[in-house]
Amino acid sequence: MIKVAKFGGSSVADAEHFKKIRSIIEADPSRRFVVVSACGRRYKSDAKVTDLLYLVAAHVRYHVSCDDLLTDIGQRYFDIADELGLTYPIREEFATFAEKAKAGDLTTEELVSRGEYFTARLMAEYLGLPFLDAADVVAFHHDGTLSMTRTQALIQERGIPGGFVMPGFYGATREGRIMLLDRGGGDISGSILAKCLDAALYENWTDVSGFLSADPGVVPHPQPISRITYSEMRELSYMGASVLHEEAVFPVMEAGIPIAVKNTNRPLDPGTIISDREDYVADEPIITGVTGKRNFVAVHILKDHMSNEVGIVRRVLSIFERYRVSIEHIPSGIDSFAVVVQGEDVKDSLWSIVADIKTEVQPDGIKVVDDLALISTVGRNMSGRPGISGSLFAALGQEGISIRMIAQGSDEINIIVGVRDVDFERAIRAIYSAFSDGDHLLELKDLKRAEAASHPASVR
Ligand SMILES: Nc1ncnc2c1ncn2[C@@H]1O[C@H](COP(=O)(O)OP(=O)(O)O)[C@@H](O)[C@H]1O
Ligand SMILES: N[C@@H](CC(=O)OP(=O)(O)O)C(=O)O
């Protein structure tokens, strides 16, 4: 049996974490295929090596000295190697890298990728496994997209059957140009490897005991989620649960490989299993989780008799398309609709888009709301259970939080509300507490009991 184990930045932050990883690998002989990230934060105010490397790239671009930064980054690897007594020539290799970086001889992608490269080099020696460079097996097209077919072939051809340590987050084109995945993309590397090796399980090791039903930075002690479906996981990740990259689901989902999210610091905790299991058990929590993201923009378009005007939505959407902005939601009324997009995507183009809408669609009114946060409450068969939306909206009402937008995915696994940015955390806490008793998320039977208490006549 093959298990692919990906250890995130928080799990490889220092030598102590390397030791924990070795115990985890030694505890299970099927864990022989390891993917690692660049060193993450050791404590709250610490920096991630990847962020520091991006900073080095910016300094080099503007011809500003970055010697101190490079010294700090190097020291993190030297400390790990020294404390673990490793023989890999990290000082020499890092010095060569630093010289090339300062001389401007490296692309930003190659420079940044060295964070994962050096971790993997040290980890391979420490675990006694061969090192496999992701540049040799994770194949990119020239446009920056992944070639799964070529990656599959390369891993079959060059992958070492007994196991190896591979750096996450990067790969290369046919010509050897290093390309990066999205930030947090080490999760995707692990998922790709699991698919290509036809693994029985993809383990994603991090610093929390699995997916939690809310961000622990917003809700104190959120309940861990023991099992979720691939689509619930994607919904939670896309809407802010940063523990797993939302794209990491696709390679393993296609192959039907479950993901286990586990805590490197508490390996015996059960963690979360993500699979395609959809069967509903009556005593499971009503909701799976609450998550959210800030910085959305809604462009409201108002026009009398809009419902009779054919093609108006298409014309507005084609303006966004022209500016290469993807659309998140389109809530609509009879004579109005809004286009909701990520603020980051329109930071340079918002006012040009508004001007084009005025010229090309000639609305009666146009309003821009640029302090919108979206909160997604995720669960199974949401629309089939009327009490859920009632409880959710009542919770926000009681907190005096006004709802600026409501949307529901067609797959009925989420209800999305838009609130003002300043209300973001308060709204998440209010929704979470509406579905929890303080310690645990409520189960469906609790909701039924509450409904029966408030409508005694309807109970037979
Ligand atoms: N719903 C959630 N469940 C679990 N963790 C979450 C959630 N929302 C946000 N997080 C944060 O995600 C962090 C783990 O992700 P990340 O920092 O990318 O880990 P790694 O460095 O292991 O890849 C946790 O420390 C936690 O603060
Ligand atoms: N190191 C990269 C890739 C990654 O996946 O990191 P982490 O495992 O720490 O989320 C980043 O910071 O984006």
Radius of gyration: 25 Å
The number of distinct helices, counting runs of at least 4 residues, comes to 15
| CATH class (first level) name of the largest domain | Alpha Beta
Query: Which molecules are bound in this entry?
Result: adenosine-5'-diphosphate, aspartyl phosphate
Low-confidence stretches: none
Structural class of the helix and strand makeup? alpha/beta
| SSE pattern, N- to C-terminal | EHEHHHHHHEEEHEEHHEEEHEHEHEEHH
Helix content: 25-40%
* Number of structurally distinct domains: 2
Task: Give the tally of β-strands.
Answer: 14
**End-to-end distance:** 53 Å
Strand percent estimate: 15-25%
Main beta sheet: 7 strands, mixed
Mean pLDDT: 91
3D shape = globular
Find the CATH topology of the largest domain.
Answer: Carbamate kinase
Q: CATH superfamily assignment of the largest domain? A: Acetylglutamate kinase-like
Strand order of the largest sheet: 3-2-1-6-8-9-7
Tell me which CATH architecture of the largest domain applies here: 3-Layer(aba) Sandwich
